[in-house]
Amino acid sequence: MSERVTRSQTGKTPRKSTIPDGFVETPGTRRRSRKSTANPDRSSSPTEEEHVPGSNPIVDVKQGAAKRANGHLNGAPRGRVVDGWSEGADPKVDQNPHFDFGGSWGVSAMMIGFPLLMWYMWIGATYYDGKLPSEPSMSWTAYGKHLFNLAYTGAFPSLKAWVIYWTFLVFQAILYLTLPGVYSTGKPLAHLGGKQLRYYCNGVASFYTTIVVALGLHFSGLFKLYVLLDEFGPIMSVAILSGFLVSFIAYPSAIYRGAQHRMTGYHVYDFFMGAELNPRMFGWLDFKMFFEVRLPWYMLFLTSLSAATRQYEDYGFVSGEVGFVLMAHFLYANACSKGEEMIPVTWDMYYEKWGFMLIFWNLAGVPLSYCHCTIYLANHDPATYAWSKPALVVFYTTYLFVYWVWDSSQSQKAKFRHAERGQMQDRKTFPVLPWRHVENPEIITSKSGDTLMVDGWYKYARKIHYTCDVYFATTWGLITGFNSPFPWFYPVFFVLMIIHRAYRDIQRCREKYGDAWKEYERMTPYLFIPYVV
C-alpha cells in the first residue's frame, strides 16, 4: 500500500511568514517524501487542496481574458484541476464544472420559491395559529390573492423595518472594522500561485458588544427588543429584498471589475453561485466572512432574546422552552464567533463564491426561516407547549453534551489544519472545552503527499460534526412540539441539505485523495454515527 498511516508531529515550532500586500506565501516550497512523517509545512483536511509554489506557472488573474488554444494559456500547458481551476488555464473559467441544485432551472426555482415559502410560513405562523394557511372554499386565484393581501398588509417593507435592519448591518460592519481581534490566514489559493489571504477576526468582541448594546437599548427603553417580533414580517421582507439587491450589485460589479472567477458561462447559474471569490471592502472587510458569521447567527440569537423579553414582560417569567432555544442560539452564535479564526480555511471561504446563494441565505434565509421555533414559542401561551421538568432536563443535558462533541470536533480539525502550517492559535474563549486539540494525531498520507487526520472524533465517524448539527436542528423543532409544521422546516431542510453537502464532499475527497480516502473509509467505516451508520 502506497499510503502511510503515521503520527503528525505538528505544532512544535510555528513558522513566521511575510505578508506582502495582504497576502502571505504558502509555508513550504517542496513536497516531502512519503517515507517521512507528516510534513509540518503541508496543509491537510478532507476538504483542502494545496498548490506548491514553483511546481507550475503562476497565472496572473489579469491574464484571464487571454485566448486559450488547445488547452494552453500563454503557452503554459494545463495541469491538474484544483478547485475548478486547471493549472496553466484561465482562472476566470471553470475548467471542471459541476452543476449542483439542478443547474440553471433548479437555482431559478430556488430563487423564486424560497422567498415565497418564507412569506407563506410567516402567514401561517401569524394568521393561522401556526397551521398551514388553508381556505378550502376559495378558488386557487382567490386563494393566491388572499395570501398576497395578507403578506402585503402585514409584511410590507416599511421604512421602520429598513432602518432597523440596515442599522444592524452597518453597526456590525463598524464593529468588524474597529474592535480588537486576532489574525488568521486562509487556505492557499492555487490560481494565485499558492498565496493566502489574511483575515481579521474579532467575532468574540463583536458578539458580546452586540449583546451589551441590545440589552442596554432594551432596558433603557430606547429600543425594546420585542419590537423585532412585532416587526418580524416587515423586517423579513426587507431582508428578502436586501438579498436580491445585494446580489444584483455584487454580480455585475465583479464582472465590470474583471474579478470573476471559475465561471461556467450560464448566467443564471453563475448569478446564483456567484462571480467573485474574495470580495472585500476597504481591503479588509471580507464580505463572505462578515456575512457568514455575524449577520445570520447574531440576528437569530437576537430574535430568541426578543422572545425571552416579551415572555418575561407578559408572564413575569421565561419558560424552559424559550430558555432552551435562547441557549441553543447563543451557543451557536458564540461558537461561530469564538472559532472565527478557523473559518478562513473552510469550504465556504476558499471555494464558494459570493453570489445569491451565500448572500440571500445569510441576509434572509438563515436568520428569518430557521427562527420559526422561536416565533411559535413567542406566539403561544407557555402552557400550550410546556414539557415536563424531567423532559427539559434531558433537552438541556443532551444538547450540551452534543454541543461539546460538535465544538471540540470542529476545533480538532481546524487546529490540525493550522498546526500543519505552523499557524495554530490557542485562544481561551468561552467556553473552553476539553479535547479541543489532538496532539500528534494519526494521519494518512496520500500518493500526492496530502494528509488526512483520522484521529480524535474523526476516528469514530467521518462526518460526526454533521450528526451534531442534525441533532441541534431536530431539538429546535422538537422543543415546540408537533402542533405546527413551521418549526420543523429547518430540521427537514437541514437534513436534506447536509446529505447533499456530505455527498459533494465525499465525491471531492475520493477524487483528491484516491486510495488514501479508501483507507480512511476502511479504518472508519461509519459516516455519521459511530457503530451505527
From TrEMBL:
EC number(s) on file: 1.3.1.71
Entry keyword set: Oxidoreductase
Source organism, top-level taxon: Eukaryota
Name of the molecule in the record: C-24(28) sterol reductase
Gene name tied to this protein: ERG4_1
